[in-house]
Amino acid sequence: MSKFKKKANTKQDIPTSALPDIIFMLLFFFMVTTVLREVTINVKQRIPDATQLRKLQRKSLVSYLYIGEPKKTDQWGSEPRVQANDVFIEPSDVILWVTTEKDKLNEVERDQITIAMKVDREAKRGLVADVELELRKANARKLLYTTLQEMEE
Amino acid sequence: MARNKGRDNPEINSSSMADIAFLLLIFFLVTTTIANDRGLSLQLPPNPEDIENIDIKIPERNLFKIQINSADRLLVEGEPFEQDVTEIKEMIKDFVLNNGRDPESSDSPKDAIVSLKTDRGTSQERYIEVLDEIQGAYYDMYAARIGVTNKEWRDIASDLTDPENRRLYDEGRGLKDGKLEYPMNLSIAEPSKTGGG
């Protein structure tokens, strides 16, 4: 009898002392690979896929424009709009916006400003082309259509 | 043995450590976005007001025309195009590397121009799809010229601060006496008003 009792006394917990380390590892991974949200995006962003992606080298030279259908359709309507920073702008305001974005950069780097356009896949070319025309007028001619990597077979 | 008697176990209870770390993790997951700085890069032409309005005659054979209408249907070289979009890539490669063999196709890679015209009602998705194929065709050609894969070529083109990359980049595009032998002549016309092609 006494022999059986001793066996039942074996430890049964799973050691969890390494759990915090595992979670911390995950935490650091996410802290390194992600960036803090700077703007609240008020337009729908279903980013199209493409295969021929290129990477941006200098993040400091990049300004973002968001184009798509507003999320709050009852307030802003369902026509695609252009969002810069936190507000909706008209294509005619793009020149002014580019100027303020350029002012944030070093004088020598102002010509190298890159505009990354995050365009919803349902947005129409007409609006995007209007914005492009304004960008040409504002002499911000480096453009990037943000896309996702398409899975290749 | 007797010395240990009556002393408390000097261990800090760390079982809640995992919970704290989880809380932090979830906080970061919610407040951050995964950095996405990749996409199709494009150089826009200069301000239309600065360009002198010269009528340049381009022979029909040196133009590869792609048109997309408001219903996202394609017209390639004047013919309705119902096949898979990926076939455009091979067509462009044949067109650019024709070097005057086929009298219907381009004279030389230098003269070859790919023209992409959309309608104001064309969706961005379709446009990106076609632009992707056009750029892919050129990147494939450049990559083949210096014997690297398409992916390696794009990595080279993304980082031109490295002199070795710069050299390969110029070699791939055939830079000779300040002129490119294989320029990516991509003309993106202003979208037409709705209805037209």
Key terms for this structure?
heterodimer, A: 153 residues, alpha/beta, Nucleotidyltransferase, domain 5, 2 domains, two-stranded parallel sheet, elongated, B: 197 residues, five-stranded mixed β-sheet, two-stranded antiparallel ribbon, 5 helices, 34% helix, 17% strand
Give a verbal description of the structure:
The complex is a heterodimer of chains A (153) and B (197). Chain A has two domains: 2-33, no CATH class; 49-149, Nucleotidyltransferase, domain 5, CATH 3.30.420.270. Chain A is an alpha/beta fold and 153 residues long. Chain A is built from five helices and nine strands. In chain A, the strands form two sheets. A five-stranded mixed β-sheet of chain A has the order 6-5-4-7-8, covered by helices on one side. In chain A, strands 2-9 form a two-stranded parallel ribbon. In chain B, helix 2 (87-96) packs across helix 3 (124-145) and helix 3 (124-145) crosses helix 4. Chain B is α/β, with parallel strands linked by helices and 197 residues long. Chain B has helices at 17-31, 87-96, 124-145, 150-158, 163-172, and strands spanning 32-34, 38-43, 63-68, 74-76, 79-81, 113-117, 175-176, 179-180, 186-188. Helix content of chain B is 34%, strand content 17%. The model of chain B has no long low-confidence stretch (mean pLDDT 82). In chain B, the strands form two sheets. Chain B has a five-stranded mixed β-sheet with strand order 5-4-3-6-9, with helices on one face. In chain B, strands 7-8 form a two-stranded antiparallel ribbon. The chains are: A alpha/beta (153), B alpha/beta (197). Chains A and B meet through helix 2, strand 1, strand 2, strand 3 and helix 5 of A and helix 1, strand 1, strand 2, helix 3 and helix 4 of B.
